[in-house]
Amino acid sequence: MSNGPSLQGMGIVLTRPVEQSLAVAGRLQPLGATVFVFPSLAIIDPADTRLLDRTIAELDRFTLGIFVSANAVERGLGAVRERREWPPGLRVAAVGGATAQALRDAGHQEVVVPATGADSEALLALPQLQSVEGKDIIVFRGEGGRELIAEVLTGRGARVTCLTCYRRVRPEGDPAPLLAAWRSGKVDAVSAMSAESLANFLEMVGAEGRTLMQTTTLLVPHPRIAERARRLGLVKVAVTGAAADGLALALSEMAQDRK
Question: Residue 106: what are its φ and ψ, rounded to 5°?
Fold first, then answer.
């Protein structure tokens, strides 16, 4: 990506969990972007791992494992590898390209994933998920995740197990350095990957940050999150790709609009 668009002079706040933010920062900074890592979500283990233990022990009975996010890949596969080998007959599926790439990076080269779209609806529309009657399917997700996948596949006759492999919490963070840079005009965009991370971010930056957001572009990966942002009173909202390439393109377009 070092041959990508010049992002010189563009500043962006990344609110993903810290390790993911640092990975994206490593892609954007060589293009000239100024990156502020300010996580508004932290990913931690479930409070009770007994169900995790029991379900992973029974993993051989499943025919398809669905991962709803890159966090689900990291935490779910990590939990499995701590306990056993991945069953050779258990295929994997991902809700979108970033999650699919995380699976490939972890060694799963054959991934069922939508060619376009990056949500539960796109995954459920795939031919591979239509005739699932009598099949055992496991969904790796975080605590409090959407129920759509389980509901639809159950309606199609599958036996669906939802496995909570992580929790999302709001981390502690000092917003003062970020607010100082923001006031001085160094922040052009904020990236939020979910409605939860956006709500946490607005709480963490306080009244001043919420005021600054009115003149700052919010970059989100899905129209559903954009709609939530508008309901929160934000007016400069753009839907873009979730990966670093998508953020780079959005920042490049913003830089071109200035000229």
Answer: -90, 0
Q: Are residues 34 and 107 in the same domain?
A: no
Do both 51 and 95 map to the same domain? Answer: yes
Listed range (7-16, 22-31, 212-221, 241-250) with the worst mean pLDDT: 241-250
Which phi and psi angles does 73 have, rounded to 5°? -65, -50
Q: What is the mean pLDDT of residues 21-40?
A: 96
Residue 221 has φ and ψ, to the nearest 5°, of -90, 0
Whether residues 51 and 137 share a domain: the answer is: yes
Amino acid (one-letter) located at 120: S
Phi first, then psi, for residue 164 (nearest 5°) are -80, 115
94: left (phi over 0), alpha (psi -120 to 50) or beta: beta
Entry pTM: 0.80
Structural domain boundaries enclosing 28: 11-41+173-258
